[in-house]
């Protein structure tokens, strides 16, 4: 096995995050109110969670893209996707700022996605 065949830390992190995105998106679509609450909208009810299936579908879509790009070895494209992913993470933080208490987790995740994206863009 050559060094190019081995998974890097960024590959493993990306694949785990891709799986988490798919799983959370499916679970949030099954029960939008509980999904919204675990997402960070602590005061969620059926009215406030009505938008949530769209957010959950976004997570599934991004998760599928992440896994696809990782399995294809497209590190630079995946790095760009992670950099672009900072925008929804920061918007999610803003939504949770106004409707809950769990905004910091989204803010931190946005920063980590940006860092992961930069590292992946620098990998060959």
Q: What's the story with the biggest beta sheet?
A: none
Mean pLDDT: 89
Count of separate DSSP helical elements: 6
* Low-confidence sequence ranges: none
Taken as a percent bin, the fraction of beta residues is under 5%
Helix/strand structural class: mainly alpha
Write down the secondary-structure element order: HHHHHH
Characterize the overall form: elongated
Overall strand count: 0
Level of helix content?
over 70%
- Straight-line N-to-C gap: 18 Å
Cα Rg: 15 Å
What structural keywords apply?
124 residues; 6 helices; mainly alpha
SSE topology:
Layout: H1 9-30, H2 32-39, H3 52-71, H4 75-84, H5 86-99, H6 103-122
Helix pairs in contact: 1-2, 1-3, 3-4, 4-6, 5-6
Describe the protein in words.
The mean pLDDT is 89. This protein starts with 8 loop residues before the first helix and ends with a helix. The chain has six helices and no strands. Helices cover 76% and strands 0% of the residues. The longest helix has 22 residues, at 9-30. Helix 1 (9-30) crosses helix 2 (32-39). The chain is mainly alpha-helical and 124 residues long.
């Amino acid at each position: 096995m050559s060094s190019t065949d081995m998974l890097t830390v960024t590959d493993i992190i990306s694949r785990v995050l891709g799986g988490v995105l798919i799983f959370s998106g499916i679970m949030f679509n099954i029960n939008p109110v509980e999904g919204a609450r675990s997402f960070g909208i602590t005061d969620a009810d059926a009215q406030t969670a009505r938008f949530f299936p769209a957010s959950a579908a976004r997570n599934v879509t991004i998760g599928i893209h992440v896994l696809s790009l990782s399995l294809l070895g497209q590190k630079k494209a995946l790095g760009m996707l992670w950099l672009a992913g900072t925008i929804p993470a920061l918007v999610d933080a803003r939504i949770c700022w106004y409707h809950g208490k769990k905004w910091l987790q989204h803010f931190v995740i946005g920063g980590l996605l940006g860092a992961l994206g930069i590292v992946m863009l620098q990998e060959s």
